[in-house]
Amino acid sequence: MLINPARQWIVILPPKTGSYTLTALLRRPQFGGLLWLGHDYMQHNTEPHPLAVTYKKYLAIRNPWARASGLYRIQEKDKRTQPVTPFLEFCQRRLINNEGSDIYWRQLVDWCPDRAGVLRLEHWEEDLPQLGVDPPL
Question: What's this model's pTM, rounded to 2 decimal places?
Fold first, then answer.
């Protein structure tokens, strides 16, 4: 989760939505994003930020197929889920039926139940102005 106290926004970064890329971008000085709790590995933090009530919230999202593919690759690397399930079965079980308790499998809507703006990975340059910043040249 990134916050910007000066512009009063919070960006919620679910796994496999370009969170590392968006974190690197929004932490640049011209954008002013700060990691909530201050640790690089905490961008997937699910703890509510105390300023979440008053700040404008944005949820990072990604093309659903690209996100499903990324999550599937995580499953392939995870020795606890061997043997690897076929992709369609994986999508049905993990992404549609919500089987599994790990934060990776949570649906995007579960990351931000309140109304929030969106920051689309595939269209981040178009979406940056809503954060009050201009895209880099």
Answer: 0.74
Q: Are strands 117-120 and 9-12 parallel, antiparallel or unpaired?
A: unpaired
| Cβ-count burial 100-112 (b if 16+ within 10 Å, e if not) | eeeebbbebeebb
Lay out the sheet containing 34-35: strands in order across: 34-35, 2-4, 9-12, 56-61, 117-120
Largest alpha-carbon pair distance within the chain?
A: 48
For residue 103 the two structure tokens come to 């934060």
- Which residues make Cβ contacts (< 8 Å) with residue 72, sequence separation at least 6? 87, 90, 91
Answer for the pair 18, 24: CB distance below 8 angstroms, yes or no: no
User: Mean pLDDT, 10 residues at a time, over the chain (137 residues)?
Assistant: 84 84 83 63 59 82 85 71 76 76 68 77 87 73
